[in-house]
């Protein structure tokens, strides 16, 4: 029974860090808040792998994971961005800032609900996974002094759209953990937390780069898909024009 509960402990840890992240950002510690979201991503990646390794997968664990993800990767990153970048009425209209902030976790919840009920494509996620979107958003907020606030607003809306889009993203969750190596996972988590405490803002900014590239990968695929559809449409139009010319002759 205790073995079956281990994956849920990782999930609860993910949720705990998400709530703690919200508390920290409202206490002026955005760097630490962002890095806690990153550590929560690590726990989120481990819970499913540990569950598969222990053969402890369950519907309860699946639902708990989704609820935790909404808080840790939807609400927490949105609050981090709001407090750091959007909470200045002289720069951004409060109503507009509230709407943009609310859209992000709403789209994250919709994306998770779709993931739970719609069969995906093997090896791919449909839409940007909420942990990746939340990771990009909370680390992007740390660049508030280098990036214009309106760019941050557009980025928040774009990330929200990518979560509910039908763009395919590579799924790396199938890479499992051998059962004999499970004992290493608490050491990995403890090391990640120690590093996060030591260099919160630096680590967050470093993680931002690979997360952003992952998010942009899907955006590129979306743009490529639009051009491919346009080319096909033009080809069909050209074929139809040829047939119409032949028929006139």
Task: Write a compact overview of the structure shown.
The chain is mainly α. It has helices at residues 2-25, 30-53, 59-86, 94-117, 130-140, 149-164, 185-198, 200-248; strands at 124-126, 168-170.
Verbal overview:
With 249 residues, the chain is an all-alpha fold. 76% of the residues lie in helices and 2% in strands. It has helices spanning 2-25, 30-53, 59-86, 94-117, 130-140, 149-164, 185-198, 200-248, and strands at 124-126, 168-170. The protein has a two-stranded antiparallel sheet. α2 (30-53) runs antiparallel to α7. The longest helix is centred in the last third of the chain and has 49 residues, at 200-248. The protein is globular, with a radius of gyration of 21 Å.
